[in-house]
Amino acid sequence: MDNLMARVVEKIQQRQTQFHQVVYSETLNAPEIQVFIDNANVDVMTTPLNFLRDLYQLNSDNDWVKWVMKGFEYDIQFRFEVSDEVSRFIPIKMIRDWPLLFVVDAKRPVYSLEEHVISRGRIAQLPDQSVVVLLRNQNLTSEAADLVRSKDIQLQVRNDAECIWQK
User: What is the pTM of this model?
Assistant: First the structure.
């Protein structure tokens, strides 16, 4: 029994460090659930805007949406790779509240901060080359603005928190 328990613990620990990459395609079926059993981290490559819309709306007619929802049940850490253009349409609520990470061009994580006035300390917590989505009513302190430049952080300023398909 101890041997079985040791193997189960080993499998769980191994799963926590395992990454799996999938390429999204409307013409391909979503991957099997086995991906979630073997991996705790899943990268979805080439994520298009229409899929993000379906995911945000929880469109159960889309097999990929159902697959991601099932992944949440397995406590999967999703990372969606998007283009710079697509990143401009990701709903702020999705960036802030959903248990996933968006990454622009495979290297620039996307964040949206909630503070009205964003301090240097808050910017310091972000990785270099991040993308930060702000609303027009949010402001950076002068020290934060300096740090944004030195960390090569891209700011996206939006008029409101709603995305185009919510209007």
Answer: 0.87
